[in-house]
Each structure stands twice: as C-alpha cells, then as structure tokens.
Amino acid sequence: MPELPEVEVVKKSLKRTICNLTIKNIDIPNKFLRYKIDEKFMKKMVKSKVLSVLRRSKYILINLNNNYTIMVHLGMTGKIIITGTNKKNYKTSFYYELSNSKIAHNHLIMKFSKNILLTYNDVRKFGFIKIFKTKNLHLNSHLNKLGPEPLSKKFNFNYFKKNVKKRKVYLKDLLMNQKFIAGLGNIYVNEAIFLSKINPKARSNEIPLKKISLLISNIKKVLKKAIMEGGSSIKDFNNTKGKNGNFQQFFNVYGKQGSTCSRSNCIGTIQRIWISKRSTFFCDICQK
Prior knowledge:
Elements: H1 4-18, E1 23-27, H2 39-43, E2 50-56, E3 59-64, E4 68-73, E5 78-83, E6 89-90, E7 106-112, E8 116-122, E9 128-133, H3 157-164, H4 171-176, H5 186-195, H6 209-228, E10 270-275, E11 278-283
Antiparallel strand pairs: 1-7, 2-3, 3-4, 4-9, 5-6, 5-8, 7-8, 10-11
C-alpha cells in the first residue's frame, strides 16, 4: 500500500498537472470501489476549476472552486493515470506495470481543459473517491481523528511525551496508529526505528527521553529523503510522469532479513518478526 511519501509524490505530480484546469467531462465506467462512487453528485463537478491539490495523511484532496473537495484514497492498487496532450499515458502505480492497467479496471475518467485526462484505475477496488463540502472537511470521518502530520511542527518532543505516557503498546504499533501520527506506514516506521537504535517491541511509555528526540528526528529525516527520491518502488511504484521511486535503494532493514546490519561497527543480522500481523525488520544487536 502506498505510504505518505508515495502519496506525496502523486500529489505533487497532480498539482503540477491539473491545478487551474477546468473539469470538462466526467465518465464513470465502473462506480464500484470500496465505497460506491456517487455518479450523479460526481458529475455535478463538471465546469468546476481545480484550485489546489493537497495531501492529508494518505488521502489526496482536490479542492474545487465550487466549494467542494474530491477525496482520493489509493487503497492497495489504485493508480492515477494522466493522459497528456500527446495522448501518451503517464501513471501512478504502486504494484502494477502500465500494461496491467486494463480498461476494465478504470473507475473514473475526468477530462480537463487543455485536453488532459485523469483516469483512476484500481484492480482490487480497495481505494475510493468521495466528495465533501470543503468547509466541512475537518469534520469528515476519514480525517477528524487523525494525528498530526509527521513532517509538521506539531509532531514534536512535547507532543510525543504528552501522548505516550499511558500507552504501553509496542513502539512499532504506536507509530502505525493513525490517531497518534498520520500517514506513517510499515516501510518508513521500520527504517526510522532502526536509525534510532530502538527495538520495535519496546514499550512506548518506556522510551528514554533522549531516544524520543532522536526518533522524531529520524522519522522526519526518512520521510524527507523518501519524498526526495520519489518514494519507494516496491513492485513498480511510479508517479504520474511514469518515473520510478528510488528510496528502496536506501533501505537499511526493510525486506533485508538475513543480511548483515548496514552499520559499519555492527555485526548483527537483520531479523524478521511479525507485530500486529505486519512484517517487522530489525537488527538483533544494535536494536536490542
């Protein structure tokens, strides 16, 4: 599933492509996703103009000048394909090659001014597309219980210390909890915990204060690096221009079970365990 950096890359691609364009037509060949697309309501967005494209957690928010916002969640296999004026397709794909983007899996096609097409394609149909009044967006059930953005100033030492006191859960589970911090996923949590030399099964309320500061710093560091590298290409993630993510080349632990620790002064081996049914990777020496 795309995590914060991958969704951020898609958001940036869309921002460059469709901002200030007007929706000329909307076609919904298959309205059945995780939530059924409201066909009549969606088509009322025709003639509206895109004011901005934002991201909150793993959600893409397309704000229109008619005071509505289109929310897109990519789920596991959702992808946004942009067809340019040259009629060439550019994609957003986390799992599949463009050749796997069969027309049968197209759910929404939006035609913009300047002959730009946006197609939402989703094989497994776990993604969704909804419309909300922009002014009520903060009340939306998908957004109103989310924790702070990890790259924001709100996610800091004081926030962490205050909200971790009574939480006896594993650190890995805490960081995966979207109510505590929004947008983090398995890849980047594994990497940030490794850089901080903390065991993923450490109890959250027992993390030393100096480790909290280090962890926050490393979460931000890992995410910024991943965004700069275009995200991680696990089975061909691509942005809307068809470019592969590159961050997987910088993995220290994720998917590295059996490998020697990447730290030059450590002889440990990367282990793989399961925490809350998710693969968890860590060094058996420097993350004890």
